Amino acid sequence: MDGSMQNLAVANDWEVKSPSPEYTNLAPDVRAEIDEYLSEHPVKLGAIAKRLGVKVLLSTLPRGTSGQIGQENGDFVIRINRHEAKHRQRFTLAHELAHFLLHRDRIVAEGGWSENVLLRSGQPANIEYEANRLASDLVIPSAQLAEATAEYSGPMTSEVIEDLARRFGVSTAAMEIKLQMT
Q1: Do the beta carbons of residue 168 and residue 38 sit within 8 Å?
Q2: The pTM is what?
Q3: Stretch (H or E) spanning 59
Q4: What is the pLDDT of residues 84-128, one digit of tens each?
Q5: Gap between the terminal Cα atoms of the chain
Q6: DSSP code of 17?
Q7: Do strands 75-81 and 8-9 pair parallel, antiparallel, or not at all (unpaired)?
Q8: For residue 73, what is the DSSP state?
C-alpha cells in the first residue's frame, strides 16, 4: 500500500480514502515489513505479528477483555480472547499490533495494557483512536478495498457491506465504519 496515495476513486463513484496518518507516518522500513501482507485479503495478521517479532496467543481472558499486550520474558506478547467471534479476534489483534507499532514505549513503561470489549485500555482517547485507525488500515487496506468495491455497481447495500466484510474477515460494523471514512 503506497502511503503517499491520494483518495482512490473507483469505477462506481465510491471513494476510498488514503491510509490513515498513523499508517503513513510509520517508519518506511516498518511499512515495508507490513506492506507485503496487505496485498491480499483477508490480511494475514498473524504473519505480520510474527514478522514484527510479536507472539500471539489465543487465551481465556477475563469476561469483557478482548485482548492484552505486554512483555513476557523480554518478548512482546498479544493475548486474544479465544471466546470472542473470529472477526472480533481479528480486529483485536490488529488493534493490539497497532499499539505495538505506535505506543510500544508506553506499553513497556506501564507494564502492559488490557483492552475491554470496546477496545478501551484506560489510555487517553487519542491513543485508542490512533490504534483503531491503524487497525482499520491493517484489516481493510485502502488499496484492497478500492479494488474490491470496483467489482460492485449501484448503491451501497447491506448485502454489499456483508459481502465485503466476509471477504476481509471483519464484522459488518467494522466494514461500515471503514466505508463511512470514504
Answers
A1: no
A2: 0.85
A3: strand 55-59
A4: 999 999 999 999 999 999 999 988 888 887 766 555 555 667 888
A5: 17
A6: P
A7: unpaired
A8: T
